[in-house]
Write a structure and sequence with these properties.
3-stranded antiparallel beta sheet, alpha+beta
Length: 452
């Protein structure tokens, strides 16, 4: 088990601060941008050898003549800025009052979550064009996108761009989760549903029918475990595709819009790599035992695939066998395992998994989270978000369902934590505090009540 970090003792000096960039600095920046000496475009396809030249010209033109820094400066200064001097290091921070703190994003920071789901609606036409370019219908969202929704995945990872397609289902699930948490039917009709419908159309186009068994397959994909390239019926990809298709049918009914009957047909007949001997899922169809547990814990959470407790525990035990290897890999691989352990009510396993989900990934005097224990990619948002979900959806036993935030299983706190309070969670226009302690779990109105 990783050793605990020694305590950090430091004198901290806090000073008030406002963002105020001198005119001379802005003028110098614009002048240097305008005097850029442009090279000739690189040979080959755009983005195949780096940033596309036309895109970079447009971006710099915007920064030189379109971006209004002073307007952004005024927006930034609506917050209370401070400079913290810690051991001689000056750190710029924003002090956000606890009553406005919105501690996974749709519950804690719905305004930020809205900007993320709205981006997918804004870039839907680009995703449609991407699907057409790859020979499919509907919308195929890029693996890595620019601000206009165009594919920008580096050439060395081209297989991810055209084959790691689970992202399409992830986009649709995010749209639906935002709707469930907010209850905003107008947003669903105008922004969320067009994305959900187009991604469902993509899966109908991407799946292939096997008439001999009357099942559908999704072949030749890159798995969530990205070292698995060209596999068939990846458990996560097929599960999120099925969820996307089901969501599309449900959303259609909710809005009184016609549903494509193929959505329900493909969802019902989509093959899942289930092992009847162990009564659990394989990583993909024909996967070797060496890959077991790599991705299947994600089927229980966050996807909520119906399965027995035996299957959940099998997936979790397979994953924990590789825990030391996982600890040396990306942080996101470990953080969500505790959610599954909590769902099974296994406090001992929650206790044993918790240190692996963060300790080896903290770096520097401020314990910033890194992607892996050995690289310096700090502020790793995917890992941090996974850890946050461990707390919100693991320890509390809560899930986002149609009525809002509901109890799905009894809460399970790590044995050394006596009390957990989540302040001001946003659910359907209201705010709640969630309290977990020896008396159980309570969800009470947050002081002030209504969401801002």
């Amino acid at each position: 088990m990783p050793a605990p970090h020694p305590p950090i003792i430091a004198t901290v000096v806090i000073e008030p601060y406002q963002v105020a960039v001198p005119d001379a600095v802005l003028d110098d920046l614009r002048d240097r941008i305008r005097r850029t000496r442009w090279p000739d475009a690189a040979p080959g396809e755009p983005w195949s050898q780096g940033v596309d030249l036309d895109y970079l010209r447009e971006l710099l033109s915007y920064w030189a003549d379109g971006f209004d820094w002073r307007a952004r400066e005024r927006e930034l200064n609506r917050f209370e800025h401070r400079i913290a001097v810690v051991q001689g290091v000056r750190i710029h921070l924003v002090h956000h009052h606890p009553e406005r703190n919105r501690p996974a994003l749709v519950l804690t920071h719905p305004d930020v979550a809205r900007s993320l789901v709205d981006f997918r609606a804004k870039t839907l036409n680009a995703a449609r064009a991407n699907a057409r370019a790859n020979g499919f219908r509907g919308a195929q969202y890029p693996w890595e996108a620019d601000d206009r929704g165009n594919e920008t995945t580096p050439h060395f990872a081209a297989q991810n761009a055209h084959s790691e397609i689970h992202v399409n289902g992830d986009v649709a699930v995010a749209q639906w989760q935002y709707y469930l948490a907010t209850g905003d039917s107008a947003w669903l009709a105008h922004k969320g549903f067009p994305v959900i419908r187009a991604t469902a159309d993509f899966w109908v186009s991407r799946a292939t029918h096997d008439p001999s068994r009357d099942v559908y397959h999704i072949n030749d994909v890159v798995s969530v475990a990205e070292g698995l390239v060209g596999v068939n019926d990846d458990a996560y990809t097929n599960s999120v595709a099925k969820r996307n298709l089901e969501i599309a049918s449900t959303a259609s009914a909710r809005l009184g819009k016609p549903a494509d009957p193929r959505w329900a047909i493909v969802a019902a007949k989509l093959h899942m790599p289930f092992d009847s001997t162990t009564q659990s899922f394989r990583t993909y169809e024909g996967a070797p035992d060496s890959t077991l547990g790599w991705i299947t814990p994600l089927l229980s959470y966050p996807l909520g695939v119906p399965m027995s407790d035996r299957a959940k525990r099998t997936h979790l035990m397979q994953a924990t066998k590789n825990i030391k290897d996982e600890e040396q890999g990306a942080m996101m691989g470990v953080t969500l395992l505790s959610v599954d352990a909590a769902e099974l009510g296994d406090r001992a396993l929650v206790d044993s998994l918790l240190p692996y989900s963060y300790r080896a990934h903290t770096q520097g005097p401020f314990l910033m989270l890194s992607e892996t224990p050995t690289n310096h990619a700090v502020d790793f948002l995917t890992g941090a978000g996974g850890f946050l979900q461990q707390v919100i959806f693991g320890y509390t036993g809560l899930r986002i369902h149609d009525p809002g935030l509901e109890a799905q299983f009894p809460p399970v706190l790590p044995s050394h934590i006596r009390r957990l309070v989540l302040h001001g969670l946003h659910v359907k226009g209201k705010r709640y505090d969630v309290i977990v302690d020896s008396a159980g779990r309570r969800m009470v109105p947050h002081p002030g009540g209504a969401a801002r």
